[in-house]
Amino acid sequence: MADGHSTPVLGIIGGSGVYDIDGLTNKEWRRVDSPFGPTSDEFLFGELNGQKLVFLPRHGRGHRIPPSELNFRANIDAMKRAGVTEILSVSAVGSLKEELPPGTFVIVDQFIDRTFARTKSFFETGLVAHVSMAHPVCGRLGDLVEAAAREAGIIAVRGGTYLVMEGPQFSTQAESNLYRQWGCDVIGMTNMPEAKLAREAEMCYASVAMVTDYDCWHPDHDAVTVDAIVKVLLANADRARSLVKAVAPKVTGRSAPCAKGCHTALDNAIITHGEVRDPAVVGRLDAVAGRVLK
Ligand SMILES: CSC[C@H]1O[C@H](OP(=O)(O)O)[C@H](O)[C@@H]1O
Ligand SMILES: Nc1ncnc2[nH]cnc12
């Protein structure tokens, strides 16, 4: 199983509008089994500019699965089983700030998790762990993404807070205004618990949020509609693919393990005494936590 010391493998989780990655060599769609159930789709394995890459369309090809029904645990566990060491998530978001118009890319650095109907941890009765989420994304991978964006001629804002709502309905105006008062920058429905689970599974995680709309707070945008979002989404998705192409060779050169601690997040996290651990729970966590459960 991969850990941070392994050869880097870049995992890409593609959000709305990003259902494929072009330019891959040796490409093959393949199922990856997980004890946590079915993943959103098969994984696309290949190489991009010499870098091993594994791609998963978050909602499945053709966008079949809504945010609350995504099997986040299976997706992240299977990424780990596929050898992935660093995950780049690309997502469509609404903007909560005038200065982040549609078309803007934000390299997110914080989240406010307002989701309430999702399983948020790999750990449960029989094996309890508490990881730090103070810094929910990997600064090192963020640096690579920022440099890659510059090289690809893509303007990307470094830093921003992503409010994760349950959905699938868009926000009310009162909610949208509340999130603005909280200082949030963008709003979406998918990056939690994805980021939490990536941390538990000891993988670097970075998120590029691609603005498609101004949400409903904006005086010129009375209501958010999928039609309007999709128009912006298609242009954003092309630039996302260029960004991925530029990120891939940068990951190849990275040293291991992650100096920010992503690959050792479980070192001081498990609290359950050895003699009361549930073997079934421990068994399921062979990929996620095998490094510290040996
Ligand atoms: C298509 S608009 C709403 C939809 O788009 C975002 O998904 P993703 O983060 O996977 O790009 C948003 O979170 C909603 O799920
Ligand atoms: N305004 C919005 N709210 C939630 N998720 C979104 N995804 C894209 N735009 C969004």
TrEMBL record:
Record text on subunit structure and interactions: Homohexamer. Dimer of a homotrimer.
Family: Belongs to the PNP/MTAP phosphorylase family. MTAP subfamily.
GO cellular component terms listed in the entry, alphabetical order: cytosol
NCBIfam families in the cross-refs: MTAP (TIGR01694), PRK08931.1 (NF006492)
GO molecular function: S-methyl-5-thioadenosine phosphorylase activity
Pathways involved: Amino-acid biosynthesis; L-methionine biosynthesis via salvage pathway; S-methyl-5-thio-alpha-D-ribose 1-phosphate from S-methyl-5'-thioadenosine (phosphorylase route): step 1/1
Residues noted as binding substrate in the record, renumbered to the chain: M189, D213, Y214, D215
Cited InterPro entries: MTAP (IPR010044), Nucleoside_phosphorylase_d (IPR000845), Nucleoside_phosphorylase_sf (IPR035994), Purine_phosphorylase-2_CS (IPR018099)
Purpose: Catalyzes the reversible phosphorylation of S-methyl-5'-thioadenosine (MTA) to adenine and 5-methylthioribose-1-phosphate. Involved in the breakdown of MTA, a major by-product of polyamine biosynthesis. Responsible for the first step in the methionine salvage pathway after MTA has been generated from S-adenosylmethionine. Has broad substrate specificity with 6-aminopurine nucleosides as preferred substrates.
Source taxonomy: Bacteria, Pseudomonadati, Pseudomonadota, Alphaproteobacteria, Rhodospirillales
GO biological process assignments: L-methionine salvage from methylthioadenosine; purine ribonucleoside salvage
Residues noted as binding phosphate in the record, renumbered to the chain: S16, R58, H59, S91, A92, T190
Protein name as it appears in the record: S-methyl-5'-thioadenosine phosphorylase
Domain of life, source organism: Bacteria
Reactions mediated catalytically: S-methyl-5'-thioadenosine + phosphate = 5-(methylsulfanyl)-alpha-D-ribose 1-phosphate + adenine
